[in-house]
Amino acid sequence: MSEHITVSQDGAVLRVGFNRPEKKNAITTDMYAGLADALQSAQDDNTVRAVMFEAQGDMFTSGNDIGDFMAGMSGLADPHEPPPVMRFLLGLASAEKPLLAAVQGGAVGVGVTMLLHCDLVYASDKATFHTPFVDLGLAPEAASSLLLPRIAGHQRAAEMLMAGRKISAARAYEFGFVNDVVSPEALAETALAAARNLAARAPTAIRATKQLMRPDREAIIAHMKQESIQFAALLKSPEFREAGAAFMQKRKPDFSNLG
Ligand code: COA
């Protein structure tokens, strides 16, 4: 288990936390493995009835570790042995128990797209939501190119996925992927109360309800796999190389001679 992922059981709620605040909770391969294992253990353990994601520090997560992206994220589109990131994303999409999130600060990339698989999402008024895939020469993942337009509408999804606009918690609430915006002090207790409430409800009925609310789960997973093929190809593109180098050199990328 990665030291940067915390997992603890609070009654029937499994709390899963990002804990790499010095790197803004950027998610490494090891962390994805820890997240995927936590989701699997929640699925297998009868005493767990809901999972709640949370984070330490001032950001929820700054998304995938860009150093790992630059190292290639090998096997991303391998259907036989999915790498940890895919195991985590598939775990989210196929989770049978309720998933919740408490977003206390900035959420970037997969920090946003994972929320589209949660059943209840709470945000502090300090939270922001940013999906800068195109800024990095990449394309959306985690089925966000399907789920975000479905939740928010095409034009609002384009604002995030195509224009790369960072939005506030209030705007995320308007977009429909945040249930409630509360003060930073009230966030953990609000989300935990909601998780405890779902965890106390009739478990088979909750699972049946969740399943019925996602009748196209297989289509969502197929879309996610399609995205990962595109994503793996873009990770090898000159546009991504330029964007990754620009991030490391703390400068703006220059795409003017590419494409
Ligand atoms: N991958 C790897 N390292 C990351 C990271 C990421 N996604 N996000 C932050 N870090 C690292 C920084 O490189 C920095 O490391 P250093 O202290 O060794 O220089 C440290 O975390 C602190 O980040 P910093 O950029 O100094 O903080 P900030 O408050 O000025 O900015 C962000 C925070 C999130 C706006 C900025 O770090 C950022 O844009 N990160 C990349 C986000 C991203 O594009 N993610 C991929 C989405 S698909």
Q: In CATH terms, what is the fold-level topology of the domain at 5-185?
A: 2-enoyl-CoA Hydratase, Chain A, domain 1
Give the CA-based shape: globular
Q: Specify Rg, calculated over alpha carbons.
A: 17 Å
Order of helices and strands: EEHEEHHEEHEEHHEHEHHHH
Number of strands: 10
Distinct small molecules: coenzyme A
Mean pLDDT, nearest integer?
Answer: 95
What is the helical fraction, as a range of percent?
A: 40-55%
The assigned CATH architecture of the domain at 5-185 is Alpha-Beta Complex
What's the quaternary structure here?
A: single chain
Number of helices: 11
Strand order of the largest sheet: 1-2-3-5-7-10
Distance separating the two termini: 41 Å
Unreliable segments of 5+ consecutive residues: none
CATH class call of the domain at 5-185: Alpha Beta
Please identify which CATH superfamily of the domain at 5-185 we are dealing with.
2-enoyl-CoA Hydratase, Chain A, domain 1
Lay out the secondary structure.
Layout: E1 5-10, E2 13-18, H1 29-44, E3 50-55, E4 59-61, H2 66-70, H3 84-94, E5 99-103, E6 106-108, H4 110-113, E7 120-124, E8 128-130, H5 144-152, H6 154-161, E9 167-168, H7 169-175, E10 180-182, H8 184-200, H9 203-213, H10 217-234, H11 238-248
Parallel strand pairs: 2-3, 3-5, 4-6, 5-7, 6-8, 7-10
Antiparallel strand pairs: 1-2, 8-9
Helix pairs in contact: 1-3, 3-10, 5-6, 5-10
The chain binds coenzyme A.
Give a quick precis of the structure.
The protein has a six-stranded mixed beta sheet with strand order 1-2-3-5-7-10, sandwiched between helices. It has a four-stranded mixed beta sheet with strand order 4-6-8-9.
